[in-house]
Write a structure and sequence with these properties.
Its cofactor is Zn(2+). Helix content is about 50%, strand content about 0%. By secondary structure, the chain is mainly α. It has one domain: Glycosyltransferase (Alpha/alpha barrel). The protein has a two-stranded antiparallel ribbon with strand order 1-2.
Length: about 325
């Protein structure tokens, strides 16, 4: 199994940014803001965020801000969306530079995406999904602007997406999925509404996601995937049921997904690595208190010292 190769993963993340003209970079261009968040947060968890030029990153980020709407795009010249807006806020939180934002304009953009039933659209085109409820609630909370939305209705909508198995779907009646469960549990945690969750029922559904190889899947009958090390674990921690899975077997699964030569983590052993799974693998290990990693907050998906700085003024 070996250990987590801190330095190789730092080198991999830095190398990804330098390959802007590669096929992988071009097909992921629309997600570049998310990729920046995944990479930078991983570097911070590895105690290595200082390897990047923060001012250069902030300058690029602000070129992705849409001054008309107040939201952020995934890359320069694209349309704004909640997905990229939260990633931008999280990156600036990492850098302790939320001061560069027009918080009134940005928060108004997020507030304007709440619908009458309490749900949120991802952007001006109107798609509704509980992912967007989490994005909006997390974003506004980090900006200390959560009181600008109708929190009661937002919570009611999320609860309306709860299923008989204890899980949550993307809309009322939607299939329970670990990614959606994280979004709903995370939003309920941030708003102080976890009493709506049946912890034992949901905890059982989530711990059943552990496969024979130790990894976690997103729903029944699927293969294990490193990214669910985050979605499932963080949810279990928020509902205080993380002791229901075998952490040592999950740790072994994640470590076996490392590229020992070039760094990076893949979805499962021997597959190609990417920045997405590298982040979720390292974040999952952080949740399990892997030695040498910064601890990460399960609701805000940011290092705990960053969250403490925002809410308590201390690192």
């Amino acid at each position: 199994m070996g250990e987590l190769d801190f330095q190789k993963h730092v080198q991999y993340i830095v190398s990804v940014e330098k390959k802007k003209d590669s096929f992988e970079a071009l097909v992921m261009e629309h997600l570049r803001m998310n990729g920046a968040y995944w990479g930078l947060t991983t570097l911070d968890l590895l105690h290595s965020i200082d390897v990047v030029d923060k001012e250069e990153v902030i300058s690029w980020m602000m070129s992705c801000w849409d001054a008309d709407s107040g939201g952020f795009a995934g890359t320069v010249g694209h349309d704004p969306h909640l997905l990229y807006t939260l990633s931008a806020v999280q990156i600036l939180a990492l850098f302790d530079r939320l001061d560069v934002l027009d918080i009134d304009k940005l928060s108004s953009y997020v507030v304007g995406l709440q619908n009458e039933d309490g749900s949120f659209s991802g952007d001006g085109w109107g798609e509704i999904d509980t992912r967007f409820s989490y994005l909006a609630i997390c974003c506004l909370s980090l900006l200390r602007c959560l009181d600008k939305i109708n929190v009661v209705k937002a919570v009611e909508y999320i609860v309306s997406c709860k299923n008989l198995d204890g899980g949550f779907g993307c809309v009322p009646g939607g299939e329970s999925h670990a990614g959606q469960i994280f979004c709903c549990v995370g939003a309920l945690s941030i708003t102080g509404s976890l009493h709506h969750v049946d912890r034992d029922l949901l905890g059982w559904w989530l711990c059943e996601r552990q496969c024979r190889d130790g990894g976690l899947n997103g729903r029944p009958e699927k293969l294990a995937d490193v990214c669910y090390s985050w979605w499932v674990l963080s949810s279990l921690i928020m509902i205080d049921r993380v002791h229901w899975i075998d952490k040592s077997k999950l740790t072994e699964f994640i470590l076996n997904c490392q590229d020992r030569e070039n760094g990076g983590i893949s979805d499962r052993p021997d597959n190609a690595v990417d920045i997405f799974h590298t982040y979720f693998g390292v974040a999952g290990l952080s949740l399990m208190e892997y030695p040498g990693l910064k601890p990460i907050d399960p609701a805000y998906a940011l290092p705990i010292n960053v969250v403490n700085r925002i809410f308590f003024g201390k690192s």
